[in-house]
């Protein structure tokens, strides 16, 4: 027998799902729309060979949209987006999306200007740069990304999940102590359309 000790209203504050949540397909369409319009993101592109850089392009109560800049060797490690769905469109170059499987190698897809990705909240995935020219991608999340889970395999084979704020760095487990990705800019208001490129802000160091 189970006993409910907290009401749904009390739990909602800890685990919010916005009433205006968009589907993964809608998020991909939004990401593609923004990726197809360089005027909305080109000013924020900055490539750093040592770490991903990113900029917040849009933020409201239901959706956040980020621009990510990739160079060879950049890798998020396996992670989830907690309760958020995602849509990813590549504006320039290519990246690789891998979905974790229980048996065998991850399911990998190369994403480019013709191929985007939708990500359900229940999926564990990883994104990385495949090498070659730098890449630029647009990532839309709904509800806005609040938490992520980063995964690693313990020495005894257990799969471990590390919960963390959505704006903290995502890196492969073997490099958890590496410097966090750089921030190009973050708008001051909750409903800004385009991030202002500017000085990096510590703490706002997210992955994808």
- Strand runs, count: 12
Q: Regions with pLDDT < 50 over 5+ consecutive residues?
A: 1-19, 174-205
Structural class: mainly beta
- Overall geometric form: globular
**CA distance, first residue to last residue:** 40 Å
CATH superfamily: Jelly Rolls
Query: Strand sequence of the main sheet, in spatial order?
Result: 7-4-9-2-1-12
The count of domains is 1
Assembly of the depicted chains:
single chain
Looking at the overall shape, the CATH architecture is: Sandwich
| Rg over alpha carbons | 17 Å
The percent of residues in helical segments reads under 10%
Q: For the residues shown, what is the average pLDDT?
A: 78
* Content of β-strand: 25-35%
Number of helices: 2
Main β sheet profile: 6 strands, mixed
Which CATH class applies here?
Answer: Mainly Beta
CATH topology: Jelly Rolls
Tags for this model:
single chain; 208 residues; mainly beta; Jelly Rolls; 3-stranded antiparallel beta sheet; 9% helix; disordered N terminus
Please, could you describe this protein's structure?
The protein has a single domain, classed as Sandwich (Jelly Rolls), CATH 2.60.120. The protein has 2 helices and 12 strands; from the N terminus they run ααββββββββββββ. The protein has helices at residues 8-14, 24-35, and strands spanning 53-59, 64-70, 79-80, 85-92, 95-99, 107-111, 117-119, 125-128, 135-142, 147-153, 159-165, 182-185. The chain starts with 7 loop residues before the first helix and ends in a 23-residue tail after the last strand.
